[in-house]
Amino acid sequence: MRDVTIGEAARESGVKVTTIRFYEERGLLSAPPRSEGGQRLYGAKDVARLRFIRHARDLGFDMAALSDLLELAGHPDAPCAHADRLAEARLEDVRRRIAALQGLEKELERMLSACRSGTVESCAVMESLSDHAHCDGPHDTDALKG
Question: Residue 35 gets which letter from DSSP?
Fold first, then answer.
């Protein structure tokens, strides 16, 4: 593969140009050489690294985990125990978020099933929103934040 411009690297990797620059600033991607005209030039390894980064981000790995994963990728003969631990931690986070969403779903279903479709004054939805004591279980949206 010939060297490509940042726009072509973005198209080939699915990573936006501004995000590529961000990854360079954060040290996740080395600053590429430039053409005589000053354009950044990316090689096949750079584009492959961008694809790796994008896929890891799509799976929800944070920047610290991503940095660790990229470091590990540079040592193909190293044990993968640390990568496993990072993936396990990510999986636990996903499971925690799913449980939180299921709690939200249950409470919203309960609120709607209790609604009498009368007036706002007697609306179970409005009543529940006015006083958390009317809720049936946990539904902490803070658990959804990562």
Answer: -
In angstroms, the Cα distances linking 52 to 13, 16, 129 are 9, 14, 43
Query: What mean pLDDT comes out for the span 60-82?
Result: 95
pTM over 0.85: no
| SS3 per-residue string spanning 50-80 | HHHHHHHHHCCCCHHHHHHHHHHHCCCCCCC
Residue 146 pLDDT: 59
Per-residue pLDDT, 30: 92
| CATH code matching the domain that covers 6-73, chosen among 3.30.1360.120, 1.10.1660.10, 1.10.10.60, 1.10.10.10 | 1.10.1660.10
Across residues 108-114, what is the average pLDDT?
85
Of 38, 13, 39, nearest in space to 28 by CA: 13
Q: Where in the chain is the domain with CATH 1.10.1660.10?
A: 6-73
